[in-house]
Structures are given as C-alpha cells and as structure tokens.
Amino acid sequence: MYRFLKETHxxxxxxxxxxxxxxxxxxxxxxxxxxxxxxFHNVVGLPDVAxxxxxxxxxxxxxxxxNGYTKGARNELFALQPAPIQVQYMGFAGTMGADYIQYLVTxxxxxxxxxxxxxxxxxxxxxxxxxxxxxxxxxxxxxNEEWLLLPRNTIVPSALLPSKLPHNxxx
Length: 171
Description:
- This protein is an alpha/beta fold.
- It has six helices and six strands, in the order αβαβαβαβββαα.
- The protein has helices spanning 2-8, 28-36, 48-57, 75-79, 135-138, 145-148; strands spanning 16-19, 39-42, 62-65, 85-88, 103-106, 122-125.
- The strands form two sheets. It has a four-stranded parallel beta sheet with strand order 3-4-5-6, with no helix packed on it.
- β1 (16-19), α2 and β2 form a beta-alpha-beta unit.
- The protein is globular and about 55 Å long.
C-alpha cells in the first residue's frame, strides 16, 4: 500500500513506518520498506505512551493499524488516539469493535452491505479486493510472459475444483 501512495502522489504524502516488532534477520521486505518510506522508526521496546507521543510529534494525520487482533499487535497504542484519523487495514479483515479506529479498508465480499451494522468503523470499500498485493516483490518471475511460455494477452480458462467430488457430481 505504501508503494501505491508513494508512486501515485510522491509530493503529497510523507510516509512514516513504525516498526513494532523486531526483525533480527532483516527480511527483504523490511529492507524494501526502509528504502521506500520517507522515515522508518524502529520503536521496538518503547512503551505505547512514548510511541503515541512520537506519532503526534511527527504530525501524522492518518495512522494505519496493519495488525488488528493478530500476533504482535499493539492496539493499546491506537487506543491512545495518537492521530486524528486511524484506519484498520490488511492484517485483520474484521471489525476492531473499537471507537478509536474510525475506518476499515475492506471490499464488498469481505464486508457485505447486509453486515454494515456489525462494524464500529466507517467502511472504505476498494473495488474487487481490499487486499492490495504487489506480486512483483515476492514472485517477480510471474511478470515475465516468457516464463509462462504464453503469447502476450492470452486468456487461460481454468476452474478450481475440490479434490474429491461426490460420486454423482458432474464436473
């Protein structure tokens, strides 16, 4: 997501990344984030109050929670409301049920209109899928038509079927 913001509006957004978890191996993704954002802050080990003060001092207007209720989450930090707008995105596709998260980035498959009343957040629906992915990072060879041995713009019809169909099913 940060690459989208940076590539489409480089002079509008100042991107800060706050690392809440240590990465002793320094993964390629961490290196990429460190290179692509304007400011990378390693806040591992700092108390939530100190991180909240740092976010406020940096003048952050929109703060994204990429963990939700997953391992390593620091939701207490978001409860301190360090930014005026706080958004839940990516790591947890459901509602936070918290008044300190104003928005949830989702799609109409993950969060159907019939479920709107179940969310404490305002929903921001992305078309097709809320899960932005840059497959060029992890699977760069998939961007190469020569690797696929297919002519450019070829459509390959396919179907994903369960491995065991009932005996009376017609595939």
